[in-house]
Write a structure and sequence with these properties.
Low-confidence stretches: none
Oligomer: single chain
Number of helices: 9
Strand order of the largest sheet: 2-1-3-4-5
């Protein structure tokens, strides 16, 4: 069984808007998959889901974990979209069009100021925790970072653990003249990737599971770029 935890980069459901018709990378696996990914959520939500299921893991099970923005917090009874809005405020100081943030501004801002430095390290700590799980349970764990982790973590990689950094840049690089102000909420691509790049990501993970390092490295260098104009996908 393959267990997947993450956000929209791994979500297996349908979006509420027209999107392209092709498989997401997680749909190519031949063995059974349990996908707990939810759009707009962050590592806090994904870690909760992992810890709720960790005692169910058996020999030969595998984990794929998406490390999204740690600022996407579960705040009181916030919904996933509100977790995204909390991150928008914390990362960009935007909240004029974010009613949930305006409603809880004092509490959210206090939390942000308290944890501001901690956010720089949260995904590094999450990565080390996932490595610990891999070592203790002798389980294959493939971790995909959405934003880059700016620390030397390559030494963690071995036959049971691999960290694939900055999938977000691969997504951005598919767009000609990428603009950071583009609204990814209405991205028509499945899991924010083209069909070829979805298949390529699957091939990387599948090669890791099969311990074919050479093939995995070949696929890592095989992502296509500059495929779409902005108008085609938003």
């Amino acid at each position: 069984m393959i267990y997947i935890f993450g956000d929209s980069y791994a979500y297996s459901g349908k979006n509420n808007y027209d999107c392209f018709e092709y498989k997401g990378w997680h749909q190519y696996f031949e063995e059974p998959v349990k996908n707990f990914s939810v759009p707009f959520t962050g590592p806090q939500h994904s870690m909760d889901a992992l810890n709720e299921n960790i005692m169910k893991l058996k020999d030969n099970d595998k984990i794929i974990f998406i490390l999204s923005y740690p600022e996407r917090l579960n705040f009181f009874s916030s919904k996933p979209e509100q977790s995204r809005d909390i991150a928008r405020f914390m990362l960009n100081n935007e909240y004029d069009d974010l009613p949930y943030v305006q409603l809880h501004y004092d509490n959210i801002n206090y939390l942000y100021l308290t944890l501001k430095k901690e956010f720089e390290y949260i995904n590094l700590k999450n990565l080390l925790y996932l490595k610990h799980i891999s070592d203790i349970m002798k389980m294959k764990v493939f971790v995909i970072s959405v934003p880059r982790i700016y620390y030397k973590v390559e030494y963690l990689n071995n036959s049971n653990f691999f960290h694939f950094d900055n999938i977000e840049s691969i997504s951005f690089n598919e767009i000609n003249k990428y603009d950071s102000k583009m609204n990814y909420k209405n991205d028509k691509r499945i899991n924010h990737l083209s069909e070829k790049n979805n298949k390529n990501l699957f091939n990387i993970i599948d090669s890791f599971f099969k311990e074919d390092t050479q093939q995995m490295n070949d696929f890592i260098n095989n992502f296509e770029t500059s495929i779409y104009e902005k108008s085609e996908i938003f």
